[in-house]
Amino acid sequence: MADTLDPLSPSINSPRVPGLMHKLRMRFGRSPPPRPPGEGYVEFGEFRTEAPGVKKVGTFAGVFCPVVLSMFSALVFIRMGYLVGNAGLLVTLGQFALAYLIVIFTVTSICAISTNGAVEGGGVYFMISRTLGPEFGGAIGTLFFFANVVSSALCISACTEALVENFGANGYLIGSSGGLPTSWWFSFLYRSVLNALGLAVSLAGASLFARTSLAIWFTVLVCLASAFISFFVTSPGMIEKPDTNELVNTTSFQYTGLSKETLYSNIYPSYGRDYSTTAGDRVDFASVFGVLFTGVTGVMAGANMSGELKQPSRSIPAGTLWALLFTALCYTALTLLSAATCSRELLQNNYVYLLPINVWPPFIAVGMLLATFSAGLSNLIGASRVLEALAKDDIYGFLLRPMVSRSGNPVVAVLTSWLLVQIGIMAGSLNAIAQVNSVLFITSYFAINLACLGLDLASAPNFRPSFKYFSWVSALLGMAGSAGLVFGLRPTYAAGAALACTALVLALHLLSPAAADPKWGSLSQALIFHQVRKYLLLLDPRREHVKFWRPQMLLLVSSPRHAAPLIDFVNDQKKGGLFVIGHVRVGELDGSGDPLAEEHKYWLKLIDHLKVKAFVELCLARCVREGAAQLTRLAGLGAMKPDTVLLGFRDDHPHTDFFRDPQSPYKTCEFELEGGEQVFPWRGVQTRPSAAEYVRIVRDVLCVGKNVCLCRHFHMLDMAAVERRSGHLKYIDVWLVEPWRASCEDAFTVRALFALQLAAVVRSARGWQHLRLRVHHAPPTTGVMVAEGGVSWCASPAAAPGLPAQAAPGRPVHDRLEQLLTLLRIDASIHCASDWPALEESGRWQDSSDENSVLNRIPMNYLNK
């Protein structure tokens, strides 16, 4: 006997044209060049052996000092007068308290993530991406990269402002004897030179900056200490306004020293105008808070240095928390002393008031330059490290691959960050840049708290941070506070940032090569599992009702190489129900491991290739029948279990390899192994079920109360022609005829109702809706015939129980069937297979070996109606 098709792997055909998104993704994510071992994606919590000379920086120099310097930045020496003079003592302290409250909640989240496993380079981006997955992590990492770029531009602008105030024409350290030109273009030149100097230090290596940050911090601390001392020892007097202030005509303002009257006059807010802007913009609460918040955005500077730290999981929490406490004390003391010694006019019209009242003004000048330049440099290095981490993770595919460096210092990433900072410094005004900077960092804080809240709510077993002061409440408060603050202060900027992040998440989900990488862990999977488990328990099979019935399909497949089109067709037929692809592998456990473990990943890849929504169930059994019985009983979970089993028809049609066929829309090389070996090979003669075993498989399915569908001739179906509405494809035919015992009552059995339901489901699927249903029934030639008024009908009682009176026996078949279709809300035309008796006489069903012999004898007069 000729080889027959395995009944569990029928042949069919259904072309599919690759979509635009697939083509873009393939282009966007083309294969990267080979990387040395150890490069590329690194799992969160993966401990790796470090090369000699790497990560030599400790907590104090690597975290505490960079955080303090980044937080001081432009605020401590250059903008305290702007805050206190406009917002007053109480509002300023309140704004500091609000900012620190949000930052403390965020720091607890940072500490929780950083103590939940090993941390690599990329800092906060690394932590978030390993928590939220590549789409959300990549979007937030991009946001954080631009936040560091904008922050660097802000600090460079502040450093230039300090340079001009001290060494420009009529500067405090130059006087009236010349000085640097102060026009806009010269200021831009100074910013460019400072940015280039930061580039040179960055190219020398971040470790060099980390080791020198201790000296810079000590120098800034000395300068700040001199400012505190000066409040107590400097005598009262008049302080001249800077030449950059052209809004007022008054030339000098009063410094009173410690005075109760001065303190009372500065308690409440009195908003003025900002002389540092070209138009002298009016100051309000939001603009003051936007500048103030730049003094707490440097809290992640230590986390950005994670790639250069000895023990990131210990250094980041300890160094960051101590830096927060230190800066909070400094800000509070400076706010109180400024409000108690300086008149409001002095604070509003001279932002660098600390310099002329200092016991030795060069102290403040050095502090201004060092604090702002080191903060700008820290942000530049942080931005380059985040960009390098995005490139290593292949988030943007080939666009960022040049950013990866094998030398340890990402030169191209540094150059790119420097170029963007150079564009940012063209804005000029420090206060204008500060508004954008604050929005970006607050949004980043929102994402950090969201990541930790999701981890805690998902009850992930591996989320066990050693930092004990984190809880879901702190994460929720930090997230809510960040969202409320950013939308309350700058709703336009906040909406723009939210829309940009949303668009970026969608783009990365569709196009990023990392999105399809199984090595990425995604918080969404943990949350989905948590919710699905809960609702599966609520889904009670005892409460099922026929009104809400939908097909739950189990398709038994031997080799998808010749069953791929049928898989595609059943995917259209499931109508939102369960679709399980089952496969039986003949064999036994030999004690060496699971023989299906390696094969399972190829089946999952098959699901992706065919773009179907299905589950995969693999079974190891001694024979196909035994495995099919196991799958029929055990596939599914809870109330979601298949009610219909589909098998291929056992015939002699030759195999078609749709994965190798050049004309097949399913053609792919993904399932070709080295050495010519194939994934999903054909079944051998020894494991192929016999005709008797095939019949027993069908009987087993019926015995457990499942529906059975035998799928045949699907290789003749051109789904591409269906979808493009080809003119020769017009109908979906439903044959309500029992081939072995045709009767007019066949149209009213349970089997017929099931066939009508499946046909209606297929027609409702997208791509099939333009086809019309045709229902064929047998002529009334069998059973008890009744004649009345020249009309004959069959009076056989073999109809399905529960039919309405209009469809019950005793009326013409056409009328009854028409009434039944109306009741079922199925739009179909009705046709009688009038030549069926002649077909029965001429056909030899039991002896036919040609699969098309019977099909060829079906009269064409009703096939072509």
For this entry, give a set of tags:
865 residues, alpha/beta, Amino acid/polyamine transporter I, 3 domains, 3-stranded parallel sheet, 12 strands, disordered N terminus, SLC12A_fam, transport, Solute carrier family 12 member 9, transmembrane helix
Overall description:
- The chain starts with 19 loop residues before the first helix and ends in an 8-residue tail after the last helix.
- It has helices at residues 20-28, 59-72, 75-114, 124-167, 184-204, 206-233, 260-265, 285-292, 301-304, 312-341, 344-349, 362-392, 411-424, 430-457, 472-489, 491-511, 523-538, 564-573, 597-610, 624-634, 691-703, 719-723, 750-764, 813-824, 836-842, 853-857, and strands at residues 237-240, 252-255, 553-556, 579-586, 615-621, 644-648, 707-711, 731-736, 772-777, 785-788, 791-794, 828-832.
- The protein folds into three domains: 1-29 and 550-717, no CATH class; 52-139 and 201-370 and 428-511, Amino acid/polyamine transporter I (Up-down Bundle), CATH 1.20.1740; 730-865, no CATH class.
- The protein is built from 26 helices and twelve strands.
- Helices cover 50% and strands 7% of the residues.
- β3 (553-556), α18 and β4 (579-586) form a beta-alpha-beta unit.
- The protein has a five-stranded parallel beta sheet, sandwiched between helices. Strands 8-9-12 form a three-stranded parallel beta sheet, covered by helices on one side.
- It holds the Pfam family SLC12.
- This is Solute carrier family 12 member 9.
